[in-house]
Amino acid sequence: MYKFEPQIKQALWGSESWEISGVKDHETIIANGPHQGKRLNELVREQKGQLVGEENYQRFGDEFPLLVKFIDARKDLSIQVHPTDEVAHRHGKPSGKTEMWYCMEGTGDKPMLYCGLKQQITPEQYKEMVENDTITDALASYDVHEGDVFFIPAGRIHSIGAGSYVAEIQQTCDVTYRIYDYKRKDKDGNYRELHTQLASESIDYAVQPDYRTRYTPKQNEGVQVISCPYFTTAVYDLTEPMTLDYADLDSFVVLMAVKGAGRLICNDEEMTFETGDTILLPATAKEVRVEGKIKFLETYV
Prior knowledge:
The protein is mainly β. It is about 15% helix and about 40% strand.
């Protein structure tokens, strides 16, 4: 079981804690055990399929395929979109970015976020709305509560609002096209760059009636909330011990504690596991016991 030294990224709107990252020049470093001090992708190169799973290693090579974060939004993030793999490749990027959010207990009175279009607009209307500061009028907004889940496939316009605190799971990619930034200036007094044209190429203009992921919370069993080509995620809310069986899974597993406290036991190793902890289980871990009153996310590829 691996813990990592989080990378804290400060921004105009708040901060991100990159818990597990294989992003070039932003790799997280192992914080425990005999491999302490190594970078994540260095471990992938050494252990290959034993760490990430044989099929995953054939698919992704020496780059760890997920980026896992906690995001603390003290102010509104910019309105943004991420490219699909196809659009990213067209612009010389290795991949696009599909992601998901799990909302934790927020820091504001009424945390909210934007996810998806609520009305049909054309690419021309999109550009006009960006220019005249009305693009948020076209977006679906949500008051969010602890336990809410949102899936953000590449191409879906989105933004996290002030007061929200979320766990984010995404493809290993740091490509973001900023659509609108509320006319904010950076510390040097400059407006942050917008990527209006690149975003226009990436936006999925389809409108859906609801972008919130609906699921029924349950105690002491896993509830799958997201399954896509890039990751599968379940929510566990435990009040009693449980053994997670990964004997038939050819993948690493990431566990993110989102509430409560407990411990993990795998083979002869024992580790504390409490709110804010993120643990990487190698593909060779076939059985893990979780003890304590704890809610966590389980993600694999």
